[in-house]
Amino acid sequence: MKEACVMQNAQTYLEVVRDRGERRLELCRVYRHLKDRELFVLAYAKLYANAGALTPGTNPSDTVDAMSLQRIDDIISKLDAGTYRWKPVRRTHIPKKNEKTRPLGMPSWNDKLLQEVLRMVLSAYYEPQFSDLSHGFRPGRGCHTALSSIRLTWRGTKWFIEGDIKGCFDHINHDKLLDIIGQKVKDQRLMKLLRGLLEAGYLENWAVYPTYSGVPQGGVLSPLLTNILLNEFDQHIANTLIPKHTRGERRHWNKEYARVQAAKKVARQRGNIEEWRRLNRQQRGMNSKMFDDPNYRRLRYVRYADDFLLGYVGTRAEAKKIKNDIAFFLHELGLTLSLEKTTITHATQESASFLGYDVSMGHCDSRMSKITRQRTINGQPVLRVPKEIAHEWRMRHTQRGKARHRPYLLERSDYDIVMTYGLEFQGLVNYYTLASNVAQRLYPVKYAFLQSLTKTLAYKHKQSVTWVFKRYSRTSPEGVTCLMVEVPRPDRKPLVAKFGDKPIRFNAHAKLSERQTLLLPARNELVKRLTANQCELCGSKDHIEVHHIRKLKDLQNRYRGRPHPPLWVQRLIELRRKTLVVCQKCHRQIHSGAYHGISLKQD
């Protein structure tokens, strides 16, 4: 009952915040509600299962492990006293495709938890106010919704304007961002807290550097802060540029097309079949409407995070003016549009690149609809898998033209190997399922995956590829030949790993949205266990905290074959959990190996 009250009270506040956002009312006294323990419990329930929860920031011991209600109360007491200080994030660099690196910040757990509380509140308020033209880092939206909006509503586009903001996340102006937030959120203590987050700096090579611009890379609040700033850009496009460049209800008919149509009618009436065929061939190479109608203009726009694309029906000169208008407005936001990388592309002769897809307008003079007898492709937005993407994925699984195995998988079970390949390839197919050429591009990639998979299994068992196929080849319910590994389990359904069991098909209704909820995480069970305030090993009610492990599978592998694994290990395996609510004494014994297991300090 106690945990239900926690959820209900926090939900009520977030719903009130959302209602004020929907009605465009100012939001006040936010800081006071940040001192609500229930919001922190919800934030913890959302974050604890993330892969980076056990990754330390600048303090190696400040992770999700040993999380407790007392730890939440300590944060709240510092907020109440106005003494909470954000720690610098630990910066590392991860490789990019162009052989360069991208900085990634790793906040401390306490900072991450407070950021999530702020994200829940600010998201509830701003989400109803964000533009429908924005799709990045928003609940229920994602890359597929952005791409689908192009495919469904951009018919007849003549020019693409591919937007490129120079280092958007690293160059956000702090004063400008806080000024925009302050226009609607009237809380000076919250503004001070947010400024402290933005200016906390970062630790790299054991030196602390200040941050004068940008949002913390890797912070859970950073995408929302970026959307708050760029929503000003969205509104400028929607309320100023689109109305300015919208003219006419529809394109006028092409007079030459109408003349040929009339001549065809005369030729048919006179029975002159040869003349009718000649005119029909001529007409197929013409547009029925005036493609360059000076009285018809349309501007369309879509954004995902800092990546945006505009489609324009008009002249190239007008498209250049739109590009300059965009550059000027972004400059007012404290951002810089890369004039070199922001290209203007002819929509039917070339393709624009957006979210890993090639985007163009279809053009075909021969394909006709059987019902309307009109060309069905002309002017229709077409999404395609880029040739370079397919080539890159094939090259990952080949070496000097031959398939190569993955040595790092040889110690894994056959089930894990097939599951790894299967999930990786299916994720690729799922992402590109909106592409009209998905089958053409990805079937060769599937073959490269399959060769690498069978070679990996053959290396492991010191057998031939033929032996692998004979042992694991199956036919899926869809009639597709695939590789399948089954692991029997007593009194339970067997575990099944598959590769290539589904056909590769275009799916116009595919939707991959951001995995985040607006109000409540669906992890009530952990909230219930934490608020019960009782050790799940010894029953003590003193100094309760939560023990976390990264992967249950790794724990099972470490203790497989041992006759008497520690009690805490048995509990986690039996309950299939990655968390165990324990008292401080039991927790210390777990980490020191006093439960007759290997000390977790070695992990």
Entry summary:
This protein has 603 residues and is an alpha+beta fold.
Describe this structure in words.
The protein is an alpha+beta fold. It has five domains: 1-126 and 194-212, no CATH class; 130-173 and 221-252 and 298-384, Reverse transcriptase/Diguanylate cyclase domain (Alpha-Beta Plaits, 2-Layer Sandwich); 255-288; 387-499, no CATH class; 533-602, no CATH class. It has 20 helices and 20 strands. Strands 3-2-6-7 form a four-stranded mixed sheet, with no helix packed on it. The protein has a four-stranded antiparallel sheet with strand order 8-9-4-10, with helices on both faces. The chain has a three-stranded antiparallel sheet with strand order 11-12-13, covered by helices on one side.
List keywords for this structure.
disordered C terminus, alpha+beta, disordered N terminus, four-stranded antiparallel beta sheet, Alpha-Beta Plaits, 20 helices, about 600 residues
Strand content: 15-25%
**Low-confidence blocks of residues:** 1-6, 368-373, 516-522, 597-603
CATH class category label of the largest domain: Alpha Beta
Number of discrete domains:
5
Main sheet characteristics:
4 strands, mixed
Mean pLDDT: 88
Helical fraction: 40-55%
The strand order across the widest sheet is 3-2-6-7
Tell how many strands the DSSP assignment holds.
Answer: 20
Kindly identify the CATH topology of the largest domain.
Alpha-Beta Plaits
| CATH-derived architecture of the largest domain | 2-Layer Sandwich
CATH superfamily name of the largest domain? Reverse transcriptase/Diguanylate cyclase domain
Spatial separation of the terminal alpha carbons:
37 Å
* Secondary-structure-derived class: alpha+beta
Compute the number of helices: 20
Radius of gyration: 29 Å
